[in-house]
């Protein structure tokens, strides 16, 4: 048996770039496949569910091309699927199985759909009943009301409203809504029960509108799709970060001090799970939101308040609330969560079982969970659902290695101010890298060339075909940068790129990517991790202001543009590289202006930094000046 050990940590703080939303990813894939024209999908989630959908669409004759970096180009079929006979295995991917069932029933072909044993236990009868009302020929190959299924071509009739239950899963309504435009005729759906998980229907309606299909809604009881509409590509589309997954990290901020910021969702999100923020606020946590980010920290009182609330509107994110209940100041109740019973596992039973293993007192009902805080720790055996901080479905972050993401925000110990840091900043080609390395050598300190991380990001983007203005993709690259620093050499995915990252093209690219807030956030904790005894010399743009604001010595090292151009020219010539000094001078002047004007980490001297003008100094003199300043620092470690 394999274990994931979770060591005790003192604090959670940092920034996380979320993977794409599963709910949006599979909806976007299917709509792109049914649309006229090609659609380029960016930031698609790499998960079991999306892989199942991609594989099925490929077998159904939909053209597709991987563009790298979680981007795909889907060649729309312009209507029903071109392949009219196929057997599809969809694993445990409910977000693929349900909508594909409806779309295939209206495609005029012969298909068989199956999945893993658990998928064959997940009800689909309400969707099949709805399809049969309009003449679709769908048969059960096993138990009545459950997959696997066989679908045959049939004449579709739309002479009356389709009546569907909505109290088991909103995916049944989503499947019908997405498939019915294939008929080209007016279609009406009426709900016969209360509709659960309404925010997920909002996602469906928003994405259908993005592809040109309008749905008229009368409250949550009646939906009408006017005739004559068809899906049309929107060109390039972007997948929001997964709001359900955001709940894990926001919860970490709530119980671990914070602040923890998640990027990729915010006020402008179309996902209902952003309402998790309201649940956090009800517990007393400090939260803030922007259009594309959410931040959470511990309550001012230091205690999370108990809750008794209806979570029908955020069933996935509510899993995280069950974990937060362990830290509340009293018993907590999660109500109206019956849909948990019919997910990839029985989530109510699974959560109750796992919470009891950590000492919690748990009462479970048909549609509720009552949790009283734990008295001791234990071991989680999360089974097929997995607790992962919130027992979320396997299709959430499993391909992203959740433990690695959590390492970005956990702090086993606070930053140690006893370990001295010397922060050196300055314009490009001012010699700060050389001076920093020699100062570190003289003191026996570690050295951080932060610029190399941005250069590596720029080089990795160039090699993977990521555009230098694609902030989300660049931040993802920066966060997982396969970089190593060995014996004075710099490796990228095992390749020695020490010289490659010093090229002018890479320097220009580094300047551009370093201006992106998401990239800087992705590299922040990586840079702070270089602070190790006996000390650190950190060289780079915001070392003194953001990364190490408590540095014992801050130096702003500069020189005239002409002197810096001459130094850069000499370096390039010595390396056997061609260079034009006038071009170098112009590039440096333009870069200085651009770096000084940018809103993120602008080129400027910190108020408490020493100014070191090196136009007429040798490298040795500049190093000695920094060492003299350091020697004069009182009470240094």
What would your notes on this structure say?
Helix 2 runs parallel beside helix 3 and helix 13 (450-464) packs across helix 15. It contains 20 helices and 29 strands. A five-stranded mixed β-sheet has the order 15-16-14-1-21. The two termini are 46 Å apart. It folds into three domains: 11-17 and 240-410, Enolpyruvate transferase domain (UDP-n-acetylglucosamine1-carboxyvinyl-transferase, Chain, Alpha-beta prism), CATH 3.65.10; 22-238, Enolpyruvate transferase domain (UDP-n-acetylglucosamine1-carboxyvinyl-transferase, Chain, Alpha-beta prism); 416-631, Rossmann fold, CATH 3.40.50. With 637 residues, it is of the alpha/beta class. The protein is globular and about 90 Å long.
Write the layout of secondary structure elements.
Elements: E1 11-17, H1 22-34, E2 38-42, H2 48-59, E3 63-68, E4 71-75, E5 85-89, H3 94-105, E6 110-114, H4 125-133, E7 137-140, E8 149-152, E9 162-164, H5 171-179, E10 187-191, H6 198-210, E11 216-218, E12 222-225, E13 236-238, H7 243-256, E14 257-263, H8 276-282, E15 286-290, E16 293-297, E17 308-310, H9 318-324, E18 332-335, H10 347-357, E19 361-364, E20 368-372, H11 402-407, E21 410-411, E22 421-425, H12 432-443, E23 446-449, H13 450-464, H14 471-479, E24 483-486, E25 489-492, E26 495-496, H15 504-513, H16 517-528, E27 536-539, H17 543-547, E28 553-558, H18 561-574, H19 581-597, E29 610-613, H20 619-631
Parallel strand pairs: 1-14, 2-13, 5-6, 9-10, 17-18, 22-27, 22-28, 23-27, 28-29
Antiparallel strand pairs: 1-21, 2-4, 3-4, 6-8, 7-8, 10-12, 11-12, 14-16, 15-16, 18-20, 19-20, 24-25, 25-26
């Amino acid at each position: 048996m394999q274990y994931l050990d979770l060591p005790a940590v003192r604090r959670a703080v940092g920034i996380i770039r979320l993977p794409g939303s599963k709910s949006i990813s599979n909806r976007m894939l299917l709509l792109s496949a049914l649309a006229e024209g090609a659609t380029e999908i960016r930031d698609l989630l790499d998960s079991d569910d999306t892989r199942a959908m991609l594989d099925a669409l490929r077998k159904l004759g939909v053209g597709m091309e991987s563009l790298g970096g979680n981007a795909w180009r889907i060649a729309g079929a312009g209507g029903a699927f071109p392949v009219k006979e196929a057997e599809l295995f969809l694993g445990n991917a409910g977000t693929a199985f349900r909508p594909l069932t409806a779309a295939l029933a209206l495609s005029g072909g012969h298909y068989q759909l199956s999945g893993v044993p658990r998928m064959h236990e997940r009800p689909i009868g309400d969707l099949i009943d709805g399809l049969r009302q309009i003449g679709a020929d769908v048969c059960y190959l096993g138990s009545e009301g459950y997959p696997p299924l066989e679908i045959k071509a049939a004449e579709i009739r739309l002479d009356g409203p389709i009546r569907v239950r909505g109290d088991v899963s909103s995916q049944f309504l989503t499947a019908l809504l997405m498939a019915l435009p294939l008929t080209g005729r007016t279609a009406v759906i009426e709900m016969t029960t209360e509709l659960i998980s309404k925010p997920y229907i909002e996602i469906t309606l928003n994405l259908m509108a993005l592809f040109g299909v309008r749905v008229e809604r009368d409250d949550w009881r009646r939906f009408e799709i006017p005739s004559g509409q068809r899906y049309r590509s929107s060109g390039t589309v972007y997948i929001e970060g997964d709001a359900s997954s955001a709940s894990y990290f926001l919860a970490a901020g709530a119980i671990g001090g914070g602040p923890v910021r998640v990027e990729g969702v915010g006020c402008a999100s179309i996902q209902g799970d952003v309402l998790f923020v309201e649940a956090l606020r009800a517990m007393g946590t400090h939260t803030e939101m922007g259009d594309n980010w959410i931040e959470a920290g511990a309550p001012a009182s230091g205690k999370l308040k108990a809750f008794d609330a209806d979570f029908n509107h955020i069933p996935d994110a509510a899993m995280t609330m069950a974990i937060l209940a362990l830290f509340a100041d009293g018993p907590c109740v999660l109500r109206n969560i019956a849909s948990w019973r019919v997910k990839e596992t029985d989530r109510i039973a699974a959560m109750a079982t796992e919470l009891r293993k950590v000492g919690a007192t748990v009462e479970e009902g048909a549609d509720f969970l009552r949790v009283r805080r734990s008295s001791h720790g234990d071991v989680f055996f999360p089974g097929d659902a997995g607790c992962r901080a919130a027992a979320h479905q396997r299709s959430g972050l499993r391909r992203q290695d959740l433990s690695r993401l959590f390492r970005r925000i956990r702090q086993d110990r606070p930053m140690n101010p006893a370990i001295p840091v010397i922060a050196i900043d300055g314009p490009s080609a001012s010699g700060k890298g050389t001076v920093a390395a020699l100062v570190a050598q003289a003191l026996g300190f570690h050295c951080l060339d932060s610029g190399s991380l941005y250069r590596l990001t720029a080089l990795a983007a160039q090699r993977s075909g990521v555009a230098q203005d694609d902030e989300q993709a660049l931040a993802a690259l920066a966060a997982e940068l396969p970089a190593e620093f060995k014996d004075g050499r710099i490796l990228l995915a095992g390749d020695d790129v020490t010289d490659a990252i010093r090229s002018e093209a890479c320097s220009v690219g580094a300047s551009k990517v370093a201006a992106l807030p998401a990239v800087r956030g992705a590299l922040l904790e990586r840079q702070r991790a270089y602070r190790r005894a006996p000390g650190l010399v950190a060289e780079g743009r915001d070392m003194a202001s953001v990364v190490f604001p408590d540095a014992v010595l801050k130096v702003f090292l500069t020189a005239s543009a002409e002197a810096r151009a001459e130094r850069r020219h000499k370096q390039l010539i010595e390396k056997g590289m061609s260079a034009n000094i006038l071009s170098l001078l112009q590039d440096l002047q333009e870069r200085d202006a651009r770096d000084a004007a940018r809103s993120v980490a602008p080129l400027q001297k910190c108020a408490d930094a020493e100014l070191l003008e090196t136009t007429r100094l040798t490298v040795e003199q500049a190093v000695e000046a920094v060492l003299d300043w350091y020697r004069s620092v009182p009470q240094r470690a």
